[in-house]
Amino acid sequence: MQTAGCVDACLPIHSDMDLVWVRQHVRQSAAQLGFGLVEQTKLVTAASELARNTLVHGGGGQVEATCLTNGHVQGLRLVFSDEGPGIPDLDRALTDGFTSGDGLGMGLGGARRLVHEFAVDSSPSAGTKVTVTSWARRPPRPREEM
Asked: How many angstroms separate the CA atoms of 145 and 136, rounded?
């Protein structure tokens, strides 16, 4: 499915440079879909956290970006997937302050708060798939000239 100006994409996540490409694609797509600056920033922040988790904890993977339309509202769905070790305790991983590395522990829980829809499918030794969706707010009506 494509929406005006938005391109569905599957982007690799295997290096720090790939993280840059993911952030750029998400920001550009969100802007083209009519996301306001705050909504763009929230989605890009969530995407950055999830892409980094895919690289660092999952050993690399990919993100699939899909442009959505629901009536007159447009959105962007991002699916981050890897074939890494999985998340052994998902409830704990979603708890603020939890970290399996040297981060601040805001990755999964923080990403969940920044998007409208959030789902994780993970099991030990079977990889992880995190799906997030955000919807653009309807743009404000233009001011009428007096």
From this structure: 26
